[in-house]
């Protein structure tokens, strides 16, 4: 998951690449688990039904304009941890938190920071791709292209 970690590091302005002694995000030095969880949310073969499924969940929670701003080309609207919990569901949040060995109160602010920026980076054309972002492996390939574009 090193590639996804790198993208997350760029999305967070390098915070994800800091070592544990600097505190990092919520004291998590290794973001591999969080990267995997986010990949699981966004990948077509993930639990949320890919990016399209995630958009649907947000729309059902009355947050379509919020996630639409992340996908679109304008400014990203903020989201609260409570809104994320409403959109994703308590079970999904609890499952991700459990995999990471943290509680939901620690996870939600991290997701509220990372998810908008990550979705924004993965949708440079301002729309959800018809085929989604692909399976987990495809998503890693997309992130590789994103990284190559940012490094030039």
Structural overview:
This protein has helices spanning 2-11, 32-42, 50-60, 64-71, 81-88, 90-100, 104-122, 136-151. Residues 14-30 have low confidence and may be disordered. It has eight helices and no strands. Helices cover 62% and strands 0% of the residues. It starts with a helix and ends with a helix. The radius of gyration is 14 Å and the shape is globular. The longest helix has 19 residues, at 104-122. Helix 3 runs antiparallel to helix 4 (64-71). The protein is mainly alpha-helical.
Defining key terms:
single chain; 152 residues; mainly alpha; 8 helices; globular
What is the topological layout?
Elements: H1 2-11, H2 32-42, H3 50-60, H4 64-71, H5 81-88, H6 90-100, H7 104-122, H8 136-151
Secondary-structure content class: mainly alpha
Query: What Rg do the Cα atoms give?
Result: 14 Å
Strand content: under 5%
Biggest sheet record: none
Task: Please bin the fraction of helical residues.
Answer: 55-70%
């Amino acid at each position: 998951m090193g590639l996804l970690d790198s993208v997350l590091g760029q999305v967070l302005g390098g915070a994800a690449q800091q070592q544990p002694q600097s505190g990092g995000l919520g004291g998590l030095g290794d973001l591999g688990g969080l990267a995997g969880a986010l990949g699981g949310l966004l990948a077509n073969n993930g639990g949320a039904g890919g990016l399209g499924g995630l958009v649907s969940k947000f729309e059902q929670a009355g947050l379509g304009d919020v996630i639409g701003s992340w996908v679109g080309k304008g400014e990203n609207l903020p989201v609260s941890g409570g809104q994320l919990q409403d959109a994703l569901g308590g079970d999904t949040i609890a499952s991700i938190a459990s995999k990471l060995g943290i509680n939901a109160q620690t996870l939600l602010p991290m997701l509220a920071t990372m998810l908008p920026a990550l979705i924004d980076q993965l949708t440079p054309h301002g729309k959800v791709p018809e085929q989604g972002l692909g399976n987990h492996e495809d998503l890693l390939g997309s992130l590789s292209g994103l990284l190559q574009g940012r490094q030039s």
